[in-house]
Structure formats: C-alpha cells, structure tokens
UniProtKB/TrEMBL annotation:
This is L-threonine aldolase. The keyword Lyase applies. GO terms for molecular function: L-allo-threonine aldolase activity. Belongs to the threonine aldolase family. It is an enzyme of class 4 (lyase). Its EC number is 4.1.2.48. The lineage of its organism: Bacteria, Bacillati, Actinomycetota, Actinomycetes, Kitasatosporales. PANTHER family: L-THREONINE ALDOLASE-RELATED, LOW SPECIFICITY L-THREONINE ALDOLASE. It comes from Streptomyces violaceusniger (strain Tu 4113). It catalyses: L-threonine = acetaldehyde + glycine; L-allo-threonine = acetaldehyde + glycine. Residues 11-285 form the Aromatic amino acid beta-eliminating lyase/threonine aldolase domain. Its cofactor is pyridoxal 5'-phosphate. It comes from the Bacteria. It holds the Pfam family Beta_elim_lyase.
Length: 350
C-alpha cells in the first residue's frame, strides 16, 4: 500500500495544486494600506509594464479571475455575433466552458475541426477559413482559436503556429490563443514569449496562471491594442473588473518576478517527463500521444485503474474510451509523488 499523503495522490488536474509561497507573500503585502480600485492602482499598471517587457512590445492587460472568462471575453472581442470561431473539437472552449464563448459573443458559432494531439489540422483550417465566407446564409468565419499547450498535453511548434496564423491572416481571420498552460508550452519549446504569440500572428492571448502558481488571477494579454477599449467594457459588463484588482496584480507581480512562472512550468513539465519515462518501463502501460508539457495520456489495464482508485489516487479515467487515463502534474508535484504513483502502477500491473 502506498504511504503517499492524500494530496500527493491527486493527478486529475493542475488546478488542484495550491499557490506558490511567493504569491501568498505578495498578496499579504498588498493587504496593508489603501489602493485605488478597479485596476487604477500602481501595481496593476506595473503588471502591464512587466508583461510589455516579457512580450517585447507594448501590450495591454486585463486581469480576470478564470481562464474561461479570459477566453470568452477575448473571443467576444474578435468576432461579431454572426461570426464563427474555428477551434479544435477537443478544445476547452468547445467542451468545457458551458457555452460561455457562444453566450459572450452573443451567439457566434463554434466550428470544431480535427487534428492529432488536439492541434488544428492546417488543411482543415484552410478549408474552414473560407467556407461560405461572405454568404449571408451562413456564419462568417471570423477567428481561429488554438490552445497552447493543447488539452492533450501536446505543444504546437512555432512553425505549426505560424502556418495556422498565416492561413488565418490570408482569410482575414483573427487569431486567439488559449494559453491556460502558456508557461508550460514556453518551457517546452524554449522560445521567447514574443515568438510564440504576436510574432506568429496572435492578436489576443488568454494568459493562464492559476494552473501554474497564482491563486485567483489569469490575464488577457492584448497585442492588437485597438481591441482594448472594447475589452475593458466587456470585462466590466461580465463582472470581471475586480474592485480589489490590486490582489490580482500582486499575484501577477510575484508570478513574473525572478521567472517564477517559468520555473514552476519547467518543474511541472519535468514531473510529467519523469512519469512518462517510468511508465515506459511498465509493459502493461500504453502511452498515448505527445506529452510535451504537463499532461500525459495513457492506456492502463482495468485492474490497474481500479487498484489506483482504491488506494485513493485521483485522475480522469471515464471520459474517453475504457482504459484511457489522464495524469496531470503541476508546480507542486514532487519527484516522490511521481515515484509513488509509478510504484503503485507497477504493483497493480503485477
Ligand atoms: C485548456 C484550458 N483552457 C482554459 C481553461 C480555463 O479554466 P478555468 O475557467 O477553470 O479557469 C482550462 C481549465 O481547465 C483549460 O484546461
């Protein structure tokens, strides 16, 4: 029987991890004294400057409390209600946001495309980007949304993003990136944040942070600053303009200080790589797809799934075909947590 603590056995998502101590300390510091509300405080302005440095150009930033809000508000700013959002069929916006993109866009249609590893197939995009464009009987292709890293843990290469970005631009479509795991993708690719976004054609980025160390703060990073005024109204109207924005800002300030965001992401990726290496050595386990960041899919015999569950391990196993399992690591996962899980898998595999 595993001696792992209950918390160490949770591999269902990276949002089960707590918060980096540096971020808690920053929030505590922000709690004393007064500050102007609704983002008019100095620390919110400082976060904009910091992210402008990170992305090597002047960006605007809207701090929000969830990744779904960042996605839905971004898409609403990029498409008219009669437009369509071209996305992967396995994308979070298509499957896991309760229709928020459709709701916030006032009815734009999500058009789901295929492709391996939850990456949009470039040929499918080429066709969809021009499908019935200009025909009033159909929705107008308006925006492409890609997820980096993808929902299955793969990472688009720079060339893949540039290709999709070029297709979008040629057809007059905008490009949105759901970066719930942006730091993980960056750590995996080793490129610059600018290369991964606006230099490849990205107009708006949902810059995730809650899965990688912050408590309650994600961001919309605006590269096309002509969208900022509209986004500001939309953010308030959606109830996402926090009166005490200074606490979101304090979290982001600490997140970006001394590369905490990149260190956390590199660690989460390393833990997934360790898990992948260990699983490779267990013949009963079949690895599925690319695990470039911190999400790993594999096929496990039923007795292993049941044995792990009986030991208190938590992971998704009932969302796909029987036997298909998802493990997610985070900045808080330790090498010991991974080794305990590997030992348990090996034991139940017999
Ligand atoms: C790819 C992706 N995008 C966006 C989100 C947004 O998450 P939330 O609204 O729960 O913060 C998630 C969370 O699981 C995600 O995995």
């Amino acid at each position: 029987m595993s001696t792992a603590s209950p918390a160490a056995r949770i591999f269902s998502s990276d949002n089960t991890a707590g918060t980096s101590p540096e971020i808690i300390e920053a929030v505590t510091r922000a709690a004393s004294g007064q500050a102007l509300p609704y983002g008019a405080d100095d620390s919110t302005a400082a976060v904009r400057r910091r992210l402008s440095d990170v992305f090597e150009r002047d960006v605007d930033v809207l701090l929000v409390s969830t990744g779904s809000a960042a996605n839905a508000l971004s898409l609403a700013a990029l498409t008219p209600p009669w437009g369509s959002v071209l996305c992967h069929r396995d994308s979070h916006i298509n499957n896991d946001e309760c229709g928020a993109p459709e709701f916030y866009t006032a009815g734009a249609k999500l058009v789901a495309l295929g492709g391996d590893d939850a990456k949009i197939d470039p040929e499918e995009l080429r066709t969809a980007a021009r499908h019935k464009a200009g025909d009033v009987h159909s929705v107008e292709p308006s925006v492409v949304s890609i997820t980096q890293a993808t929902e299955t843990g793969a990472v688009y290469t720079l060339d893949e993003i540039r290709t999709l970005g070029a297709t979008a631009a040629e057809a007059g479509l905008r490009l949105h990136m759901d970066g719930a795991r942006f730091a993980g993708a960056l750590a995996s690719l080793g490129c610059t944040p600018a290369e991964l976004t606006w230099r490849a054609g990205v107009d708006l980025l949902s810059f995730g942070a809650t899965k990688n160390g912050t408590m309650t703060a994600d961001a919309i990073v605006v590269f096309d600053r002509s969208l900022t005024a509209e986004l500001a109204f939309r953010t308030k109207r959606a109830g996402q303009l926090a009166a005490k924005m200074r606490f979101h800002a304090a979290q982001f300030d600490a997140y970006l200080t001394d590369d905490l965001w990149l260190r956390n992401a590199a660690h989460a990726n390393a833990m997934a790589a360790r898990l992948q290496e260990g699983l490779k050595a267990i013949p009963e386990v079949g690895l599925l797809g690319a695990a470039d960041a911190n999400i790993l899919f594999c096929r496990l015999p039923q007795q292993v799934i049941e044995g792990l569950l009986a030991e208190g391990y938590a992971f998704y196993h009932d969302r796909w075909e029987p036997g298909v399992v998802r493990f997610v690591t985070s900045f808080a996962t330790t090498p010991q947590d991974v080794d305990d899980l590997l030992q348990a898998v090996g034991r139940h595999a017999g």
